[in-house]
Please model this.
Amino acid sequence: MTQPVTIVMIEDDEGHARLIEKNIRRAGINNEIRHFLDGTSALEYLEASEHGPSINGPALVLLDLNLPDMSGTDILSRIKNDTGPLRRTPVVVLTTTDDKVEIQRCYDLGCNVYITKPVNYESFAQAIRQLGLFLSVIQVPDLDGAA
Amino acid sequence: MTISDRLFNRLVLSSVVVGFLALLAAGVTVFGTFQQNRQFNRDVDHTYQVQAALAAYQILVEQAEAARRGYLLKPNASYRAVFEDSRGDMPRALNTLKALTRDNPVQQGRVAQLENMARLQLSLMSQSAEMVRGGRQITAVGMFRSDNNLANMQSIRGVLEAVGAEEARLLKQRSDRQSRSTLMLFWTLTATGLLLLAVAGGSIFVIFQYTRDLTSSRRDLSRLNAHLEEAVDERTVDLRRANEEIQRFAYIVSHDLRSPLVNIMGFTSELEAASAPLETLISRVEETAPDLLTDEARDAVRSDLPEATGFIRASTQKMDRLINAILRLSREGRRVLAPEPLDMDALVTGIADSLKHRTDEIGATITVEPMPDLFSDRVAMEQILSNLIENATKYLKPGRSGEIVVRGHVDGSRAIFEVQDNGRGIDPKDHDRIFDLFRRSGVQDQPGEGIGLAHVRALAYRLGGIITCQSAVDEGATFRISLPSVMLSEGVSP
Model:
């Protein structure tokens, strides 16, 4: 059975969110994008919402590390340490930090892809478009089997 | 030390010196008095000797007289023997007396008188003794009664008495002098003793005072030292905290500054993308309905928009480079240094080789002279030297083939490295500025943001070193870095 993947974007900068969305759309991805400006509401949706991936999957998380209310790595570890289906949700970390230690930490916590937001817009658009390709080939886990 | 302290000390010191001088004077006085006393003792002793000699002589005279009288009454050989003995001894006893009274002319005169009278007496005695021996006893007794020997004897006794009296007088005088001198010696000694006590007491007091001061000073000092160490520790912790704060600040600022830049660049590109259909529209309007198109609209789309976006893009890119530079510096500052033995010859040769492509291109040579060994952080040293050598290749003087020399030597516990070029040089007024972040000097014909030397200086500081520049315009430049041959680990170095 196939179910459309919901893209959950957790990004406090509206400009970034808009640019990411634009480029995803340009790459030909038409999945639903749900945008959250802070970690609390995003976690609420991911863990408890009836439309969220915990109950009604599948989803892909685009995560910014610098959030106003909590650190992105906290959200990442919450997602990956979940006991339910949420932990299989692919997480793409998208942030300005290109610090090696930070990147390693994200991968250690279970992040699937790490993308640095380059100031150079072409690279940025390129990265997002590649992300689109990634989204189009993503294997959605079989929820029934997993449960 | 306050002025009153110094005055007090001078006072104490001078009183101690005065005390010791007085003690010395007292010692000399005691010695003099003692010598005088000894002289008086000798004088008294001499008087006693004179008296003894006088007594001995008197006994001899009386004995001779008594023996003669006995012999006259009873011509016995034993009386005669006594008489002869006494007579024989008399001159010697008189000589002794003469010798002893040589210092006194009055006594000398009396002794001479005595000698004459004694000679007369002796001759009278001898005469009568001869008569008795010759059997003329009666005549002898008669003569004894008639001659003046009795009167002579009386005179002798008188003179002897006078000599004795004179000596007794002298004895009294000398004894008095002696006891006076002894008394004086006693007082002098007493005074000296008191003075000694005073000086000793003073000295002990001063020493005690000094010792107490010294002890309390030492205690203060050790307390201050302990405090000092605490203060240094505290300050070091503060400094480290401040440094960490700055690092964190730079890091956070860099990230948070980049975030809006992503938007500016992104939406600038969106603007450019959006101006493409606008441009197409303008072209179509120009073709189909030129009267609809105003000059303002055409200029806005064809030149103003591209120009504006171009400037925004260039500035944003520059800002991004600067932020990246700050980020790199802050990251470098956070990197933990790992000192290790470094083969500096190999390290510098490696850098020179990596720049070979570029130096061949511009026709420059890099000479690496023998380098001293170093125990320091490899990455930091590589970055310092590659920055300096790369700069040397960048700022050569056009038309002059570049000669870059890297050399090093040991200076005490420090190693000195020099990178010298014959390039365009640096104006001396800029020698401090070039080490500041984003500051450059001279003609801006080379790419770069003014970061390299700031980075080099930051690294040099972290390794416990300093970097200086020696240069003049058109005369090349020499960058000299001096750093400890053995780097202390960071926890230790202040």
